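Structure, all two chains, one model.
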Amino acid sequence: MSLKLIIEIARSLLLARWRQTLVAAIGVTFSITMFIALLSFMGGLNKLLDGLVVNRTPHIRLYSDVEAAKHQPIELSPEFSGYHHFISSVKPVSKSPAIHNALPVMKALENDPQVLGVSPRVSTQVFYNIGATQLNGLVSGIDVLLENRLFSFSDYVTEGRFVDLKNTPNSILLGKGVAVKMLAHIGDVIHITTVTGEQFPLKVAGIYQTGLQQVDDEQSYVSVATAQKIIGASNNYITDIEVKLKDITRAPALAATYRQRFDVDAIDIQTANSEFETGNFIRTLISYSVGVTLLIVAGFGIYNILNMMIYEKLDTIAILKAVGFSGRDVNGIFNAIALSIGLFGGVFGLLLGYGLSAVIAHIPFNTTALPTIKTYPIDFNPRFYLIGGVFSMVTTYLAGYFPSRKASRVDPVIIIRGK
Amino acid sequence: MNDTLLQATAISKYFHDPQTIQILKEVSFSLERGEFASIIGKSGCGKSTLLYILSTMDTDYEGGLKIDGREMKGRSEQELANVRNEKIGFVFQFHYLLNEFSVLRNVMLPGLKLGKISAQEVEHRAMEKLKILGIADEALKNPNQLSGGQKQRVAIARALINNPVIIMGDEPTGNLDKKNTEIVFDIFKELAESYHQTLLVVTHDNAFAERTHRIITMEDGMILPPGRPK
């Protein structure tokens, strides 16, 4: 069976009805274009939201939680080991929020080959003083350079320079919401009240905005040393250790290991932000189902057109069979027709899809919540193009399957004698 | 010549719609190599039905059929298609040319399908056949630009392309005027006499049939005993 001959016949049949062919191919092109544009846009959006939270969140956070002792003294007594213990009014022991032995722990983490980086944090509750009013707030002492390297913090600094936090002593980086409420600008000196009731003056080094209102309204940053000074603690007082891993998927397992090894509380990003995973999953699911639906609709278009073509070409099919083309050859001819519609429609669809994505990627998108985003987010992921291409071929093959089979079963005697 | 090319043994065929009718009743006959035979009979006597069975296109029958010494009954659709391609040439009442292809391409198609010789050789051979039939000048035209007689000649050229062992015709002149009928007959006659081509033609044109070498007369699904000498 000569493939070349079959393709040539398929081509001639296609060109003889080029308008119908074009309509069918445009159907495929349109659906692939939309498929690519939709998935790229959704992918871009997912990445943006990931960036908003996941990039800024440590993969594992070690901290010291306030909790009741897991084992009460009576449980340790061998005398009562076979008994059921009723203990009422259990309270947590008074315990420092700082991590015990924080500096050696950090040292150990830095030497762990699975860890990309470790950054300390000293967090404390404060009040921002605005005249007579006091605002609830949270101040975090951070290692300025480390924090920037691991969590690209400078992306969110809208006014002032991030390094000034390190260079200027007793300086603070205010959240946008806090700054607006306090009417504070760069260079101003603001006052905060610590939990112990002491007043503390700080110079505004800059203003940041994450896009998460709740954070921007409360959180401010100072250097680790400044934070320790505010609390009045020594330089080994560290409340959180933030760990960024080389492989984010290892976070839950490693968090458990660290919990054991360092006797601290550890939470991994997957547990802390499970709703983001779910959101991403649902968005991806929706875009894939819309894309696939579009392709199926295009597939029905091809099915219709091929069916019509077969009715028009009954004579041709009959004569091909009479001169020695078998049912399989005829089947091959119509499959080649369907697949070439899929191929050309698909290729143009991928190109147009890329074009449309590129256009969307240049449309301005300004939102106060996302200061670093200037245009709509697009993910130019080659995987989408691969899936789109494969899918266009599969749908057109399926759409051509039944018409081709019908054509292969045409009985030439009935057609020729029917005249 | 005493060389049987086509052997039909007790071929019976039934039509089941609207009710079961036996259209062919144990038809047996054979055709020698080089014979120019015609099948005549009234409409509905089963002559075309017989031809389509002999052509291997209709496989729903009882009895046996041998072409070129090989049994056709029970072969797969694919094998039968190859037999048609290689051994049988067809000429129908309607030309059945494909308008999507040029005249030359139409003639070449069965040759390309057979694939025994290169495309250039098929083209060369197709031009030769067209020349023999006197329509070489029309080779690059589209079939719908030709007259009825010319189209039928193209169809004959297509039937000849693979040098088949037998040419079958179903009323090949049924749709042609007297002059073109004459031309087609002369072509058949020349094929039979100069090239020793075996031909089997179904016709209801008695004048046509009488000039062939052998007349097979059918009535009510049976072949009448030959009442007329060759």
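Chain A touches chain B at residues 2, 5, 12-13, 15-16, 315-316, 318-329, 412-413, 416-417, 419 (CB under 8 Å).
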